[in-house]
Amino acid sequence: MLDILYIEDNIDEADIFKRVISRLPTPPTYKIIMSGTEAIDYLLQQGTHQGQSLPMPRLVLVDLNLPGQSGFDVIQQVRANNRTRYMPMVVYSTSDSPKDMRRAFDLGANAYLIKPGSYHEVSDMIRRAIEFWLTQNHYKP
Amino acid sequence: MQPTVDLTNCDREPIQWPGFIQSHGYLLAIDPATFVIWQASENCQALTGLPTNTLIGQNLSGIRLHETAGTELVDLLTVALRQNNPEAFNPYLLPLGDQSWYLVIHQHDGALILELEPTADLINLPLQTTAPLLNKTMPIQALLAQTMTDIQRSSSLTDLLHKTAQKVKELTGYDRVMIYRFGEDWHGEIIAEACEPFLEPFLNMHYPASDIPRQARELYKTNLVRLLVDVDAPRVPIYPVQYADQGRPLDLTHAGLRAVSPLHIEYLQNMGVRATLNISLLYRGELWGLISCHHYAGPRMIDYPKRASVKLISQLLSTALEIRKDDEDEQFSHMLNQREQQLYHQMLADWDIVQGLTKHPLTALELNTATGAALLFENKLYTLGHTPADSDIQALIEWLKMVSTDAVFQTDQLPNLYAPAELYREQAAGALVLVLSREMNEYLIWFKPEQKQTQYWGGNPEKPVVLGEDGTARLSPRKSFDKWEQLVRNRSEPWRQVEVATALKLREDMLQLISQKANQIRALNEQLRLAYEELEAFSYTISHDLRTPLSSIKSYTEIYLEDYGETMPQEARATFDKITKASDRMAMLIRNVMHYSRMSRTELSMESLAVKPMLTQLREELLAGENGRDLTIQIGNTPPLLGDQTMVTQVFSNLLSNAVKYSRLTPKARIQVQGSETEQEVIYAITDNGIGIDMKQAGKVFELFQRLDSAVTYEGYGVGLAIVKRIMSRHRGKVWFDSSPMYATTFFVSFPKTNQPASSL
């Protein structure tokens, strides 16, 4: 049972995320993966995760700029696989470039969140996203 | 016999085989192998005592010429023919009766042609000349030596020609000796003359080309000396009329006795001339002119040796002409080449065609004898010296495009080809045009002024033809040689070949430079493209790699405050506030830089924009943030403009927020937006009564990150106006301002009405 898979290579961002979650009244379960390739292997249960029966998340938060395969690659591979093709994929990136947004949506992202520049704003945004995707949205992995 | 020649065959009169000889000599055409007589002039009966028709088919050895036996002649011919060039030994002296005659032989048209002519004294009247009788006594060699010396000493061409005319007159005793020069259109002009004082000089007279028809000029190139002893003497036919089986008379091109055309006789009779001698002057194998001798008093015979001397003089003169002309041409051509080289180096050094051709002491105007020049290049017209008006030059170029597709066009009579040029013929009666590119509309033109000339014609040149009595047009020699004046207009000095050649060389150099520059620009464009790709990558780096740690700094500060803020001393909290503010400020700077670079790169989508709703919305947003101020934003005329919605909104947003910001300390802040339009553009003026701009610092206003002294107390990053400027230049528009601090500061933006957006940079 996994609520959120957060794909993020920056330790600081990951730390701040953990802190935000920990301050919630009912903290969701989450897993943080720090590379695109690792995330794809996890979600598609391939490579080092071959044959393992891993819990699938109800929401994926994905940064775009990742070492190895990028956030775009993650979205594309997830959408290309029958088992994961309807998985909620939410981009969570500092990039506000319209080009990046268009590309993410073209590949099948469900939403695009621009990372704010402060803890309070981040906290606010993560809380609202969890509220929507985990409480109001209907999706069973 | 008087052949009539109509206009359709006038140029084809076969003057080389007239079928007649002049009456002062005898002609025999014989088989060079057997010496059998094929043809004889009808007067040969006087020579042989036999009717001419009985001579035909006889062997030369079977007849007598007076007391000279034919066999003697055959011996002489046999010896002469044994040399390969019997003509080299001309003339052969032959006693006929009590006189010595000259026998002149040559081979032509398959026949051996024998001509017998008397020595001169038999015919000539005693000379009534004022010329010294030197020629009677001076040996030919001495005369030639003196002529050579004269030629060498002549300081100018005119002097040389004059001395030659004089010398020929002394040698030959004709009443008038003229040097006649052909123009490009083959009309002639008398350029030197020596004549008896009782004659009216013909010097500087012009004669139409039809006076010496084409086939005569062709003949003059091979037969250099033509003698006509007596205009009034009847011509002697050659028997039989047809030569061998050729179906035409014998070719007399090289025969000294050849009779001239009846038309020419008539022409000379009209002029009152009794005897003539014409010697060709050649320049590089082409007919340059004639030495033309006229005699009026009576017949005049110049015997073979003297004709040979005159011929030698003419050849000396021709050589002198060539050397002189070569020297002159050489010097001129060398000078032009040097100048062309220098122009090329100037263009290369400046790396600019216009600069290289027009901005140095040596300009394109010096490349030839032009007095004006015009360069149309990259849609700009540059002129040098005396030229027609700019609009006239443009119109001339339009005309040229229609009439010529050549790379070079030249004329010395532009107004005759293009009537509008008559209005400016004083600047441009002649034109030399280089087409650099028809597509790009790029031309280099040289102009020469009209050279008004009065030409004196020997008779009206427009009427070389007279109507016959039956009313049909018939080519008939002119009757009138009265001096006839013509004012020649619309013409310039002609362009010389070397001028055209040098101009073409310059054209090559210009085209090479243009293509080198184009390649350079292409290379620069490629570098630019790569640079912008790098910039884009750099922008991404800024957006992600710089912003992320900055966000972390701020976030950790906030977390620390959240966890330990309650227990922190007041000073520590203030320090943390400063950290937060500094990171905010840096985040803002990064965002602004990205924004500026995006305004430079994003493609524009141009449309007609309604400005009023845009301004009304901006006013609402701005006023919402400025509660409690006496601030009004008045919107006046709002003509629509052509632009990119997002970017134009950005322009007004930046200008209006500046106006709001910098009028914050004004008690009654008034901002006014007023649009207006001209034929070409839509202009908006945004006026406020805020702190304004010290015009001394005007240069800094639109620079990125530049902030004025007066603005230091206001928050800002020095990016807003730089973005406005960038957007306006993307729209090919303009932005400028005017300021009286505390009273009125106005920023103007103008958008062109027809708009091709500038490429994204």
Automatic annotation (TrEMBL), chain A:
Keywords: Phosphoprotein. Residues 3-130 form the Response regulatory domain. Gene3D superfamilies: 3.40.50.2300. PROSITE patterns: RESPONSE_REGULATORY. It comes from the Bacteria. The modification 4-aspartylphosphate is found at D63. InterPro entries: CheY-like_superfamily (IPR011006), Sig_transdc_resp-reg_receiver (IPR001789), TCS_response_regulator (IPR052893). Pfam families: Response_reg. SUPFAM superfamilies: CheY-like (SSF52172). The keyword Phosphoprotein applies. GO terms for biological process: phosphorelay signal transduction system. The keyword Ubl conjugation does not apply. PANTHER family: RESPONSE REGULATOR RCP1-RELATED. This is Response regulator. The lineage of its organism: Bacteria, Pseudomonadati, Bacteroidota, Cytophagia, Cytophagales.
Automatic annotation (TrEMBL), chain B:
It is an enzyme of class 2 (transferase). Keywords: Chromophore, Coiled coil, Kinase, Phosphoprotein, Photoreceptor protein, Receptor, Sensory transduction, Transferase. InterPro entries: BphY/WalK/GraS-like, GAF, GAF-like_dom_sf, HATPase_C_sf, HATPase_dom, His_kinase_dom, HisK_dim/P_dom, HisK_dim/P_sf. Gene3D superfamilies: 1.10.287.130, 3.30.450.270, 3.30.450.40, Histidine kinase-like ATPase, C-terminal domain, PAS domain. The keyword Hydrolase does not apply. It comes from the Bacteria. One of its GO terms (biological process) is osmosensory signaling via phosphorelay pathway. Residues 507-534 form a coiled coil. It catalyses: ATP + protein L-histidine = ADP + protein N-phospho-L-histidine. Its EC number is 2.7.13.3. Residues 156-315 form the Phytochrome chromophore attachment site domain. Residues 541-755 form the Histidine kinase domain. Signal peptide: none annotated. One of its GO terms (molecular function) is photoreceptor activity. It holds the Pfam family PHY. In the N-terminal section; belongs to the phytochrome family. This is histidine kinase.
